[in-house]
Amino acid sequence: MIxxxxxxxxxxxxxxxxxxxRHGAATLSSDEGVRRLYTREPVKAAVRxxxxxxxxxxxxxxxxxxxGAIVFSDASELRxxxxxxxxxxxxxxxxxxxxxxxxxxxxLVHEAPTLFEAGVDGRYDAIxxxxxxxxxxEARRPGARRQMAHQLPExxxxxxSDYVYENTGTLDDLDRYVAELAGQLTG
Length: 187
What we know:
Elements: E1 2-6, H1 13-22, E2 26-29, H2 30-37, H3 41-51, H4 64-71, H5 75-102, E3 108-111, E4 126-131, H6 134-140, H7 144-148, H8 154-159, E5 163-166, H9 171-186
Parallel strand pairs: 1-3, 1-4, 2-3, 4-5
């Protein structure tokens, strides 16, 4: 069973991913994948060439905040960055999936914040959207509204998902939900 895990910024999807890991699932985070990609020299070079030196720190690393400021204020720049990163993330996902299946994993959970926007929802057996009211998400991640504007609305993600969890409770509530869902999906 391959579960896609999505939701808007500040919704709690990363906490949900950690909970799935605690409950025996093999997990993969696209956000962590992007961080890894930014350490690859060809990716750094492409980013530097496209955006200029302002997105590279003094120690030669990609400045994710600087890139975020650019791409979340210019949709064409976001499309360019997605064109660079999404194919590489797809390769990473496929290799991870194949390794996990080969190792006998019964539940694979992939956190992909923009899985609907990227058009990759068909690669999953089921999709869980973790959602929360916009004010709650903004309180959890100040400045999140700017990124929210570039993602599908939460209600649309929920309507396209097999499972929806409104994350307005405690971390224990989220953990209980994840434990129950993991049991259903592997039972």
